[in-house]
Amino acid sequence: MRVRGWIAACFGLLLAGCGAEIFALNYTSFVDPAYRARPLAARTVLVMAPTLGLAKRQLAEQAMAAVLRESGLAAVTGLEVFPPTRGTPTNQEVASELRTRGLDGALILWTTSERVVTTRGYRTVTDTELQTMRINGHPQTIRVERQRQVPYTTETPTAAYAASFMVPAGPTIWTAEATFTGPTFDAFATAAGTGAIAKAQQDGVVAAPVPQQPAPVAPRAGQGGGLVLPGLN
User: Fold this and answer.
1) Which fold has domain 10-119+155-202?
2) Helices 185-202 & 54-70 angle (0-180, nearest 10)
């Protein structure tokens, strides 16, 4: 069953992409037992998708960084730290960079499979035609409907993504995965990235969004900005 909503049972996702809906089915995760009682709640995060290919990597990393910054947290993209011209970094290199930059951890995203699901079947088509016939000696126009079965074929891109969270000491403390169906493979990169951040926040690995403080209201022209004391009018 497709679950519509940002965070729901099984963490189902409904996202907009390329003018069509993207569904993430059964987004599941696992938190290392050592971090369940005392969640990490990372506030400075390195977001990486080094194996997605340049186009999808840019989409995913920018989407993840945007979600974190909109949540009031700090984010650094992997493209800034590990440029694609220098190859894919090792876990040791990632952990070392986290310590050097004073970051709380790295959220790493990658794809485990991509395929096109082909569905074939038959659908009912109704043909309508107007016919003239004589009824009780008078010409009458009637509408005649005929139904027929026609074959159809649909091709739906499907991709499986996985994500993990690494701390500066080196170990992975969180992992998650999801399967996406939707219009294009490129659209999944953004959905997978934002979904991974949301799930990590739900699990307490990444800090929850910081409530936005309302902006102070400036006094209108002609009004003083001092305190108004009762009885002193």
Assistant:
1) Rossmann fold (3.40.50)
2) 30
